[in-house]
Amino acid sequence: MGRAHEVRAASMAKTAAAKTKLYSRYGKELYIAAKSGVPDPDMNLTLKRKIAEAKANQVPADVIKRAIEKAKGGSTENYDSLRYEGFGPGNSTIIIDCLTDNPNRTIASINACFNKSKCKLGVKGSVSFNYDNLGILSFQHDNEEVILESLIENEINLVEIENEDSFITVYVEPSDLHKAQEAIEKTIGSVDFKVLAIKMLPQEYTKIENSEDLELWNRLLTMLEDVDDVNEIFHNVIE
């Protein structure tokens, strides 16, 4: 299976708790986008694109509306983007992206997760050099050539395109994510994107075979997902 399969599988395996986390994540990102300019998608391209991304990830309209209304209301909340990198059992690695209004609280929480899981927090760049930062678009379609031609015509910085089981997954430079989205929608009309996001993809995957190691790994993931400031987690472990 190619990377497209891994991305789709991860995207579709959302529990109720994961959805709540997803909504919280996009609530913060939409708020930040709205605060970065006029809180109106018709006058704020960043906000417009973030709304499109949120909708593609099945974020409810009321979550989107609340985030924008919060920005309109003059909220003074500010968030810092922080990234932590670390090592789990075996050859496992992990990247944790956070949005926080209290960096001291965040690093204390992240440290606790690693310590209680017997895992090791690394320094900046110790893990991410083994990952690719890519814009990913995955959708149902069966004509790869048409999509490829459209992307080339629209001068998209295409990294890779995959076609598996009538699903096309396009990997582009992060700055071209929404440009690629617009090109695809212009070519084939309305598209139900299963994945529309910028993600860190590992260059190599690993599987944790040892049961004790797997328990520690799952403990780390569970604890990190319970940290409110954690925005998104990327890792190289295949279940």
Characterise this structure.
With 239 residues, the chain is an alpha+beta fold. It has three domains: 3-72, Integrase, N-terminal zinc-binding domain (Arc Repressor Mutant, subunit A, Orthogonal Bundle), CATH 1.10.10.200; 80-129 and 204-235, 2-Layer Sandwich (Alpha-Beta Plaits); 131-202, Alpha-Beta Plaits, CATH 3.30.70.980. The protein contains eight helices and eight strands, in the order ααααββαββαββαβαβ. The protein has helices at 3-12, 16-35, 45-56, 61-72, 103-116, 144-153, 177-188, 211-225, and strands at 80-87, 93-100, 120-121, 131-140, 158-164, 167-172, 195-202, 230-235. Strand 5 (158-164) and strand 6 form a beta hairpin. Helix 2 (16-35) packs antiparallel against helix 3 (45-56) and helix 5 (103-116) runs antiparallel to helix 8. The radius of gyration is 19 Å and the shape is globular.
Count the beta strands. 8
Estimate the helix proportion, in percent: 40-55%
CATH-derived topology of the largest domain:
Alpha-Beta Plaits
Rg: 19 Å
- Outline the low-pLDDT stretches: none
Supply the CATH superfamily name of the largest domain. YebC, transcriptional regulation domain
Q: Give the end-to-end Cα distance, rounded to a whole number of Å.
A: 14 Å
Tally the helices: 8
Which structural class do you get from the secondary structure elements?
Answer: alpha+beta
Strand order of the largest sheet: 3-1-2-8
Overall pLDDT metric? 90
Element order: H for helix, E for strand: HHHHEEHEEHEEHEHE
Shape: globular
The quaternary state of the protein chains shown equals: single chain
How many structural domains?
3
Q: Under the CATH scheme, which class of the largest domain?
A: Alpha Beta
Q: Sheet bearing the most strands, described? A: 4 strands, antiparallel
For the record, the CATH architecture of the largest domain stands as 2-Layer Sandwich
